[in-house]
Batch of 2 targets.
Target 1
Amino acid sequence: MNYSYWETEHLLAEIDYLIVGMGLVGLQTAINLKEKEPNAHVVVIDRHSWGLGASTRNAGFGCFASIGEILDDLQNDTAENVYATIRKRYRGLQKLLGKFNDNAIGYIEKGSCEIFTKLNRDELSMGIDSLQGINTILDKELGLERVFTYKSTNPLPNVTGTIHNAYEGQLNTGKLYDTIYSFAQELGIKLYGGLDVKYWNKGNKIEVQTTDNLIIKCSNLILCTNAFTSQLLEEDITPCRGQVVVSERVDNLPCEGMYMFDKGYYYWRDIDDRILLGGARNIDVEGETSYTMDTNETIVTELKRFMNEQIFGREVVIEHQWSGVMGIGKGQSKTPIVKKVEPNIYLAARLGGMGVALSANVAEEIVQLIASE
Ligand SMILES: Cc1cc2nc3c(=O)[nH]c(=O)nc-3n(C[C@H](O)[C@H](O)[C@H](O)COP(=O)(O)OP(=O)(O)OC[C@H]3O[C@@H](n4cnc5c(N)ncnc54)[C@H](O)[C@@H]3O)c2cc1C
């Protein structure tokens, strides 16, 4: 197929900012650019019909920190990096909530709860020992009093103690994406799916070549390609797949709000009288280092076991299951990359498991970088 004169000369002409990746980062980057420069021609493209990496496939945790994950991250990264990422997530969440109506994005602040069982009793002790110190740091970093509190009782089976974060809330992932997508359209940003970028050449303009041989010319190219960035550039970004299952509708759910277990490797929440459960990627890290949105049977079997034994205490039917792919760095680094790759070409990527909140912050940072050039 050849692209028509109209397609190349009208739909894709005179692009000031071409953003690759229609996930939360790409869409919000486009929105920030258009708000700053209302006359700019801003186009977002994606290889899929919509952002189909992580942004429409996540669990909708509007989260920034859990004790178990902080203690784990401190083993792999500097304290400065760990708390800087938490600060960015928290600020990002505030930006999302400041810009979009809670109802429109399905935000409900029910708080979150990390559970501990006899399987991770030591982690509970470490969590309790570190709680006050971490609260003091977070008070200074975020201006929030007593982020974490300990409780000794919980109605879920096998629980020996819990640590709560009162400042987190759950989002409806579908509503959030839809709201941001529609907001971008209303601003006049063009959103085109089905365009898979292969490479680009630089001359007078940047010429982006797609897999079906379309050439798109633009003045600035911004890659918001998260996990898939290493298919285009040499960057320290590894794909990291996650599996999700959703139960049947149940009267009187065993828990409401957001829950975590085992340093956040297991996470679940209520949605529409169901429980959505994701994670367990630590039982097959190699298998989940993948760009494909396949089912990992070993992990899904484990998630079903966990749903029955740890959440419901009885067997429930699983009615939905899917996977999504996020991006992490070597040594499990969760710090996003926001940088200029070369003149007029930029990158905003490497968002891991708490990337929803972070996305608003990353989108702001990349636009500030572009404006500072
Ligand atoms: C299962 C799962 C559960 C999660 N749960 C949560 C959660 O509860 N809370 C939370 O905060 N975070 C969660 N996350 C993480 C969060 O969803 C991501 O960090 C965030 O959505 C990343 O957004 P993004 O825009 O950077 O990437 P993406 O949404 O992946 O968007 C990148 C886009 O780039 C496109 N693309 C890539 N390469 C090309 C190319 N060459 N040409 C054209 N298009 C291209 C892809 O198709 C994709 O649509 C979860 C992630 C997963 C996978």
Note: The chain has three domains: 5-57+175-236+333-371, 63-171, 238-328.
Target 2
Amino acid sequence: MSERFSRRDFLRLMVGAGAMVSFAPALRLKADAPTSIEMDTPPTLMLHTRDRWKLDQLVRLLNEEGYTSINYAMLLSAIEGKSKLPARPVILSIDDLGASYIQPYFLDMADVIEGAGHRGVFGVVVNEAANHTPKNWARLRELSDRGWEMDSHTCTHRSLPRITTQPEMDFEIIDSVKRLEDGIGKRPVALLAPYGNVYSHHRLRVFDERLFETTSRAGVSFIVGIVEGRKINSEAKPPYYTGRIGPGDDHLSAMENLKNFQSLG
Ligand SMILES: [Zn+2]
């Protein structure tokens, strides 16, 4: 249980338990009313170039099972009640695309996913501004134009909770967002935390509030880690924290992980 939500969840649990004992009829009535209790985070796959061999068969399985890929902008729209998610949503995210060098494997991965009718999210390490590597940025813009969401994976891929000063935190989060916005013409919707590290106290799973404060100032709606983040609490405010899961050994384990996303992590 996370420190960020634990007290509130505990209170809700207590209220719920009390209601069950004292106001059972009211509870039944409530079950009939429209609820906005919380939303499940759509199963979210975290991919790297080393996973490129799994993609062909994975996207085929996704199509067989009726999954529709979405991105964080679509998730935000659903959270805000402006649109609905498809019946079986999935977020396909690919990390570590760099602005200083475009590793061709990333483009191959985009082609395979697109070829099966899907799109996803790139976590960009924004280690060069658009005016320094214009050819690379043209590639990033092209991916964006093809429907890929280009999100921040910071400027230098540092573990954010290990940063000790606010100017360094601002550089990794605010500058990466600004560079993406300047270079692509769209503000990223999500910050994909390097190594999934979001805790100031790892063992107790205490979130580093500086990440949330800085990401909020950057105007970015999601912080994406790995563990937890399986629900979006109805009382949560942006930036929302959501988790992800790796694919495991092959396309079969990737599909299993997606199906069991809510109970893993
Ligand atoms: Zn990374």
Note: The first helix runs from residue 3 to 22.
